[in-house]
Each structure stands twice: as structure tokens, then as C-alpha cells.
Write a structure and sequence with these properties.
- The protein has 428 residues and is of the alpha+beta class.
- 60% of the residues lie in helices and 9% in strands.
- It contains 15 helices and eight strands.
- A hairpin with a 5-residue loop joins strand 7 and strand 8.
- It is flat and about 85 Å long.
- The termini are far apart.
- The relative contact order is 0.10.
Amino acid sequence: MGVTTSWAARFRVRQYVKASLWIVPMLGLVLGALLAELALAADSADRPPSGWHYSATTASGVLTAIVGAMVALLGFVVTIGVLVVQQATGTLSPRYMRLWYRDRLQKAVLATFTGTFAFAFSLLRSVESDSVPDLGVTVAGAAVAVSLVLLLIYLNRFTHSLRPVAIAELVARLGETVFSEGAAAIRGAAPRGPGAVPSGAPVTRVRAVRGGAVQAFDVRGLIAEAARHDCVFVVTRLVGDFVPPGTVLVEVHGGRSAPDPARVNGLVALGAERTIEQDPAFALRILVDIAIRALSPAVNDPTTAVQVINYIEWFLHTVGRTRLPGRYVLADGHGEPRLVLPGRGWDQFLELAVCEIREYGGSSVQVCRRLRALFDGLLDALPPEQHPSVRAQSDLLRGAVEREFTDPARRAVAQQADLQGIGGRDAS
């Protein structure tokens, strides 16, 4: 009898695999050893060209050098990783590390190094005075060349991509992708009718068995489970919310029978911290973190904050052009409402984007002018129904400037809109 794991458990496993820095290198280690056996088999079949022949001393020396070089390169890459962690947690955002751990290039580099190490080490045992793995030694040399090329690409990439502005662009793109995909999925599952939200007291409530941050919902699974019991599930928590054990996660309205709470819990993934899979606001959280760290007295770099605000504005333009009702009613294949999910409205996205930057950067002329340009740009590009929130945040900025800049001349300068903060043109 097989063991059935819940969707939430499988989601947590996928998250662990994505963030793991040892699984892919371990696969490279195993693959290297297997390829060494294939190379030895090919040598025994007399397949290597006549020019690929080495003496036992040369082969042993080359393979030994490769083994030592791969160990040294692995240590070098690990050292770079430690420095990245220190920089990210000190000057960027600890939240960004969840994205950095997933970098495929870094895992490919580590897997190539471990694979080359295992390949060369496995060949060493077959080197004898009258038997030399000629093909294997040649392939090992080629693998070293590939490793060095990947190392150069790795260094070039992280030298450039660890700048705050590069990270801001990456995070903004990821957030925009997650937001767009989520909006498309919600539109595709819209009910055929008006899709009214259930009213009245729920028949039953499903409570969280374990605590943690809501990382994702199995939307299809929840809809299917609700259809199976002919009821409507109303989710009470946003993706990204932290829920203690015993918190109500889902309210069940109507239905022929009560769903199994354990089964419903298995369709909601909880973890130690937020993820970006279904949470575009998490990307915005990272961007704001980078901006306010740049504005801290220890760093005092308003130009970096302005560069991050550029990408925050980009993200806000994407969000602001989409209708955000705050609650989403999703239907099954027959068009019947089955699931109600809470969502963030435009007000929440905008407040998250500018509130803390305004509070920490209210004394910076550069930041105030850039925020003013941001609001002017939103008012110009977004539909009228989004304007009240923008004007409310603009008024708060005006009040912050009046408190921070008591001199009328300096206040007038800080109130101007400037797309570059200082030295640019008026946004109008």
C-alpha cells in the first residue's frame, strides 16, 4: 500500500529542492562517477583515437592535479557564497536570499566541479603501468576547461548582478510575472454567474494544524474538494500571512457533507517564511527593504533608494492597470462558485510600496522629489478609480516634507517632482 503525501507536503519538498545548494552538486558527483565507468568501458573497447594516448605517469599526474584543482575551486565558490550572504543580509535584504539560493547557474557550477572531481578520482584507480584510461584523461581535461569557463561566467554574472539596481530589476520582473500569471489564472476560473460571496455563518471551520506563513494554496485542489462536497470554501488568510496553530484557515459554506479537515489542511502550504510563488507582494517587500536599508544612517545612500523606486514604480504600473476587487470568487468546471480567496487591493500594494520609504526618506530631498514624480506618473497613467489612493499618499508625502523642511526655500525644492531625484526633469 503506497503512502499518499499531501499537496502541501509536496510543495514544501519542492521549495526545499529549489533552495538547496547540495542536491544538484550531489547529482553531479554521482554522474561523474558513472561517466568514469563509461569512459573506462570505452577505453577497453579500443575506441580512443590513436593520438589520445598517455603514459601512466602523465595520466596519474594530470588526474591528481584535476582532483586538487576541483577541491580548491569548490572552496573558492563557497567563499563567494559566504560573501554574498553577508552582503545581502547587511546591505540588501535577508528576504532576497530565498531567491538567490535558487540560482541555476550557481548550482550548475557546483555540479560541474563535483562531477569533474568524481570523474577524475574514479579514473585514478585504473591507472597502471600497462593500462591507462586514455579517453578518460582527455575527457577530464575537457571537463576542466568547461569548469573554468563556467567559473568565469559565474564571476562575471555575480559581479554585475549583485548591485542593488540589478537585484531590483530581477525582483521586479519576478513579481510582475507572478502577478500576471495569478491574474490570468483568476480570470480563467471566474464563475459564469455573478459569483456572489456566501453570506451567513459557515457550516464548519477548518483550522490550521501547524503554524507558519501561508506560502501557497492548491487552488485546483481546493476547488475540486469543494465541488466534491457541493460547498463553497472561503479562505480567511492572505498568502504571506502568518497563522498560529488553531487559526481558522477555511470557512465551509453549504454542502452535502463536511470535508475532511486534514485533507483541506493538506491543500494549504505553510512554512517558516514567505515565498514568491503566489505572492507578488513579497517581491515588493524585498524592493522596499533594499530602499530603506539604503536610507539608513549606516549606509546613507539615497541614490540607490531612488534607483529602487524606479522599479517599484514599474511594478505599481503593472498592478494599477489590473482590477483588484479584494476578494476573488473562483468556479469549478461547470461555472459554479466553489472558492473565495482574499486578495490585496490597490490601496494595500501602494501603501506597501511607499509608506516606509516616505517615513525613512522624508528628510532626503532626492527621495521626496522622486516619490513626487512617482505619484504624478501614476496619476497620469492609471485609470481614475486608482487616483484617490495615489492622491492620499501624495498628501502624506506633502505633510512629511512640511514637517522635515521648515525653511520655505528648501521645502519648495523638496516638493518638486524629479524623475532622477536631483538633476532630472520635471515628471509633468
